[in-house]
Amino acid sequence: MTALENTQLAQLIDHTLLKPEATRADVDALAREAEALGTYSICVSPSMLPVETSVKVATVCGFPSGQHAPAIKAAEAADSAAKGADEIDMVLNVGLARSGDFAAVEAEIRAVREAAPAPVVLKVIIESAALDDAQIVGVCEAAERASADFVKTSTGFHPAGGASEHAVALMRQTVGDRLGVKASGGIRTREAAEAMVVAGASRLGLSSSKAILEGGTGSGY
After folding, report:
1. Which of 102, 177, 219, 220 has its CA 20 to 30 A from that of 34?
2. Terminal Cα-to-Cα distance of the chain (whole angstroms)
3. Taking a C-beta distance cutoff of 8 angstroms, is the pair 33, 16 a contact?
4. How far, in Å, CA of 88 to CA of 90, rounded?
5. What is the domain partition of the chain in residue ranges?
6. Confidence band (pLDDT; 50, 70, 90) for 2?
7. Catalytic residue (one of 14, 123, 149, 182)
8. Which residues contact 132 (CB under 8 A, 6 or more apart)?
9. At 34, is the pLDDT very low, low, confident or very high (cuts 50, 70, 90)?
10. Active site includes 89?
């Protein structure tokens, strides 16, 4: 694969600000920067909705631990959709995945899907660094059965780590071209971003989008 042009790479990016100390002014600045860079979307905390911007608006659900009751995740997703979120990135209950209860994984994803139906895009954050390969496959299959649109590597907040090329490739192998794959967490250089695309990512979660697009090194999410 040849190197992506800036406009091509930008259109894969969810320009992200999920720091708990972020202010409304920070989010407004993020939106203006996303518009200037030409990113696909911004991704912000649900408390910041609605956001006025010309790019898509994504938010998170059950963030960052995923240890919320399915009904709470569903209610949060419904509220975000009502406030204009185009996309919702829900955090999987990783404990369910680690214990092999993929029926429960599917049920909680389905609850969120029903609360925020299409055309809202639903991404499932699986915390791939905290799972073994069989568990990654199991949660990706559950996400597809529950009618999610994407599987996503990481919140960027888990101590086990963020995205890896191996996880992205395995996720892509599992869902084929039927679902999107989003790589997020610890992607801080253009080289790393492009490597995730080569591995199979169709979306990237980045907080240092400007630095990465300019070929520098970012920090944070």
Report:
1. 177
2. 26
3. no
4. 6
5. 7-213
6. low
7. 182
8. none
9. very high
10. yes
In 16-161, which ranges are continuous DSSP H helix? 24-37, 70-82, 94-98, 102-115, 133-145
The confidence band for 219, taking pLDDT boundaries of 50, 70 and 90, is low
What one-character DSSP code corresponds to residue 217?
Answer: B
Whole-model pTM: value is 0.95
Nearest-angstrom CA–CA distance, 61 and 48: 13
Is 19 marked active-site? no
pLDDT in tens, 75-88: 999 999 999 999 99
Per-residue confidence (pLDDT) for residue 16, from 0 to 100: 98
Q: Is 162 helix (H, G, I), strand (E, B) or coil?
A: coil
> What is the predicted pLDDT for the residue at 221?
63
Task: Calculate the alpha carbon distances from 114 to 43, 71, 73, 74, 109 in Å.
Answer: 21, 11, 11, 8, 9
Nearest CA-CA partner of 148 in 102, 69, 89, 211: 89
Question: Could you identify the residue written with the tokens 């989008």?
Answer: 209
Q: Which residue has the higher pLDDT, 218 or 44?
A: 44
Residue whose structure tokens are 């209950």: 93
Helices (H) and strands (E) in the chain, counts: 9, 8
Structure tokens of 58?
Answer: 């994504």
Token duo for residue 212: 């990465």
Centroid of chain to Cα 114: 19
Q: Which of 160, 151, 142 is nearest to 182 (CA)?
A: 151
Distance, in Å, from the CA atom of 29 to the CA atom of 41, rounded to the nearest integer, reads: 13
Fold assignment, 7-213: TIM Barrel (3.20.20)
Question: Is 123 designated active site?
Answer: no
